[in-house]
Amino acid sequence: MSTHVHPRAAEAAEAALEITRALRSPETIATSISNRAASTLCYGLAGTALMHACLAEAEPGSARAASAHWDAAARLLGNAPPDGIHTGPGALAASLIIGTGYLPPNDTHQNMLSRATTWLSARAAALARHHDQATREQATPWAVYDAIKGLAGIGRVLLAAHNRGHHAEAEPGLSAALSTLTHMTLTPIGSRPGWWLPAALHPPTVRIPTTGAATTGLAHGIAGPLAFLATAHQSGHTVSGQPDAIHTAAGWLLNWQTPERTWPPHISGDALDGREKEVPVPTTGRTTAWCYGTPGIAAALTRAGHAIGLPILNRTAADAMNNLAARPPDDWDTEGAALCHGSAGILQSALRLSCHTLTAQAVHPTLDAAPTSQTNGFLTGRAGTALALAGIGGLLPHPADEWDCLLLLS
Fold it and tell me: Which of 55, 58, 176, 331 supports an S-S bond with 128, CB 3.0-4.6 Å?
C-alpha cells in the first residue's frame, strides 16, 4: 500500500479516533439496531470489534473494547443461520481471524481462531458440495460464490487463517473454495459464463433484464472470485485450472469494459448471446462504488495482473482508476461515507492501488459525510469509514492480512 502522506492525514486520523471513541459501548451498538443485525460484521458488533482491534495500538482502551464487542456479539449471535462473512456465525469468525492479527500474540481471543477457522472451513465445504451437486446447466447463485455470502469472501478469510498458522483447519475449505470457483469460472452455461444467473435467481431488489445477467463487480460479480483466486495464487495456493480461470475471468472483464473505461454492473443475457450490438452505459448502479464499480474491479484486475504476469491487466486497472479520478466527486454514483456504497470504499481502493489523485479526492467527501452517518457497522457504517480514514491517517499497523482483505482489496 502507498505510504504517500495526504495533506488531511491528521484530520483523517482524528476523525477515525472520534468514531472509535463514539462506538466504545457495545450496549449502545446493540440497542441501535435489530437483534438479528446486532452481532453482524456489516451492521453490528463484529464490525465495531474489528475496528477497535485494528486501532488497538493507536487508541488506549481499544483492545479492551474489541474484547467486549466480540463477547457481546457472541452472546447475541444466538441461533443465527450459516451465512457468509458479513452475517451469521461467519461474521464473528471473520472478525476474529482478521482482527486478532492486530493484537498481541498473548491476547486471549487468539485461542478462538482454531474454532473460527474450522467453522468457516466447514461452511466453504458445504457451499462447494451444493455447487458440485448441481447439474451442468444450473446457475451458481450469488450466495455460493460472491464476496458477501459465498466462497470468494469465505475463501479469502480462510487464506488469512492459513497464513496465521491454522493450516489443518483452513485447508479443506480453502481447497474447496478454490476448486469450486475455478470450476464455475471455466464452465459456461451455453453461450453464457458460469456466473450468469437467470433473472428469477437475482435478489428481488436488483433490476435485471428478463434474459438474466452476469454481474461484473467485486461484491457480487466475477471480480470477487477473480480477486480471491489471484490472491491465493500469489500466496502459493493453486488448484488444477486456477491460472486458466484467472485468465478467463480477467479477459471477460477486459472484453466488457466500456469506452469510458468503466463497467456496467451486469451484462444481460441478450448481450452475452450477441443479440445486442452494444452494452449501454448505465446512469446508475454504483458504477463508481467498491461493490459494483470501477474501484473493486480495478483492484481485482491488479491482483490478477500480478498473479499471472499480465501487465495489460494492471494498465487497464490504472487507466480506469485515473479516469474515475478525472470525475468530480459530485458525479460519483455513491451514497454517503461508507465502504460498500460510499466514498470510503473509493478511498480505500485508491489507497490500496496507490492512485494518489483519486485518494486525495475521496478523502474530502469521506471526512465531510462521516459525522452524519447514522449506522455503525463495518460494510455500511461508521466502523468501516473509521478504518479507511485511519489508513490515511497513518494509525494502522500492517499485519500479513490487513482488514481490507474482507473487501478483497488485499
Answer: 176
| pLDDT classification of 275: cutoffs 50, 70, 90 | confident
Q: Each residue of 359-378: b (16+ CB within 10 Å) or e?
A: bbbbbebbbebbeebebbbb
Cα 146 to Cα 25, 263, 356: the distances in Å are 32, 18, 29
Region of 196 on the Ramachandran plot (φ > 0 left; ψ -120 to 50 alpha; else beta) = beta
Q: Can you give the pTM of this predicted structure?
A: 0.96
Task: Provide φ and ψ at 174, rounded to 5°.
Answer: -65, -45
Picking from 224, 222, 223, 230, the residue whose alpha carbon sits closest to that of residue 196 is 222
What's the rounded Cα separation, in Å, for the pair 229 and 373? 34
Cell of 361: 479526492
Whether the CB-CB separation of 150 and 143 falls below 8 Å is answered with: yes
pLDDT in tens, 355-385: 999 999 999 999 998 877 779 999 999 999 9
Distances in whole angstroms, Cα of residue 331 to Cα of each of 111, 251, 364, 365, 377: 47, 28, 14, 12, 26
What are the CA-CA distances from residue 24 to residues 15, 108, 385, 404 (Å)? Answer: 14, 20, 15, 21
Angle at CA 50, nearest 5°, toward 368 and 339? Answer: 35
